[in-house]
Amino acid sequence: MNASITLYTSSFSQNALRPELALLEKGLPFRKVEVDLLQGEHQRPPLSDLTPRRQVPTLVYGTGAEDIVVYESIATLYFLEDMHPEPALMPPLADPRRRALAHMRIAEFQAKLDPKNIFGSVAFRRQGREQLGSRVDDLVAELSRWDAYLEGQSWLAGDRFTLADIAVFPLLMHFEALGFDFAARTPALGAYVARCKARPSVQASGWLDSFAAFVSQRAPEPVLAD
Ligand SMILES: N[C@@H](CCC(=O)N[C@@H](CS)C(=O)NCC(=O)O)C(=O)O
Among the atoms of ligand 1, which is closest to the Cα of residue 10? Predict the structure, then answer.
């Protein structure tokens, strides 16, 4: 289907990187609309008219007859996979073990890893280690689990890059920005992060540079450093 695709995004948002990576991996043309979150642009039209959550990413998929609006980054990934199955970013039905693995890792990302994110508390609410309390240890324990998942395999669902990697990798950049030394503390995850950074879609997005600029300007306390 020939669709006109618009992605409402923010240059430093790890959530908004997800649909962009899927679009780039699939070679789909799209228009990027930058929403200045710090200036409250998400609270105003056009975004506030498109989504009740008023968040990025929000994807507008124009089919000619109607515009389909999809928000929640994981939902945008599944939507793009459904609409544009090739090149596939999920293991095939013929490989149910790996397909289940991809589904599990995405579900675990949503239910276990993402809720442990402390980046907002540190970078925006300026909490330090004391205020974060056990949240730091909980997060580090969770990262060890993901380190084990990567032992002996290149990507989260096996030997091919999938939506599971697109789900998880952007969030890992939050922890690096807070001083977590992946290579030293979780070597398999460290090698994985390096592989993700080198991925052509990640390079083409330019996101690593814009996020680095945001982090250097915001200077969050490195609460995850040793
Ligand atoms: N669970 C959502 C989270 C989206 C989200 O938190 N977006 C942030 C930017 S990273 C945002 O738009 N924040 C503005 C706000 O919530 O007011 C997703 O995965 O898309």
Answer: 9
HEC string of the chain equals: CCCEEEEEECCCCHHHHHHHHHHHHHCCCCEEEECCHHHCHHHCCCHHHHCCCCCCCEEEEECCCCEEEEECHHHHHHHHHHHCCCCCCCCCCCCHHHHHHHHHHHHHHHHHHHHHCCHHHHHCCCCCHHHHCCHHHHHHHHHHHHHHHHCCCCECCECCCCHHHHHHHHHHHHHHHCCCCHHHHCHHHHHHHHHHHHCHHHHHHCHHHHHHHHHHHHCCCCCCCC
Options 3.40.50.2300, 1.10.540.10, 1.20.1050.10, 1.20.210.10; CATH for 96-218 is 1.20.1050.10
Q: Is the CB of 19 under 6 A from ligand 1?
A: no
* pTM of the predicted model over 0.70: yes
Is there an atom of ligand 1 within 6 Å of 201 CB? no
By most ligand atoms within 8 Å of CB, the mutation choice from 11, 36, 38, 56 for ligand 1 is: 56
Domain 4-83 has CATH 3.40.30.10: yes
Q: What is the pLDDT along the chain (226 residues), one digit of tens a residue?
A: 689 999 999 999 999 999 999 999 999 999 999 999 999 999 999 999 999 999 999 999 998 888 999 999 999 999 999 999 999 999 999 999 999 999 999 999 999 999 999 999 999 999 999 999 999 999 999 999 999 999 999 999 999 999 999 999 999 999 999 999 999 999 999 999 999 999 999 999 999 999 999 999 999 999 999 8
